[in-house]
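Per-record layout

source: Allosphingosinicella ginsenosidimutans
name: PaaI family thioesterase
length: 153
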Amino acid sequence: MPPEAAGETAHFRALESLYRAAPINALFPSSLEILEPGRSRITFEVTPDTFHAARAAHGTLYFKMMDDAAFYACNSLVSDRFLLTTAFNLVFTRPIREGRITAEGRWVSGKRRVFVGEARLLMDDGEEAGRGTGTFMRSHIPLTSLDGYRPGG
């Protein structure tokens, strides 16, 4: 494996570690996988404790998972700084009941200061439940300054 590929892989595992370390994920148990530069996948189970009054997943869950998937797809291309979400647009295409959901994130454009990413939520049967597009900006926060960012995984 070329040294740059080894560094890229270490960066991906460090981002996955950072995701696991985020306190919010205690409320929304899920797992992140950086598949390749510009692509991520988050898997999670929807349970009744995330439902609104009509017994389907609250929009908070849609936003959190799609924002995270698009964010990490974009941050996979940035090895020195933490990105920040500056805007995110959502489209809800289907209510989510209980079950396993996958959020797929993909980098769309930008490589300097502002990045655009998109995400979609897929149910186990392959049906789309939502999609979104976000913009993410480089911050002044070095990734290495964050406790959860561990290049060793």
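summary: The longest helix spans residues 3-21. The chain has one domain: 3-145.
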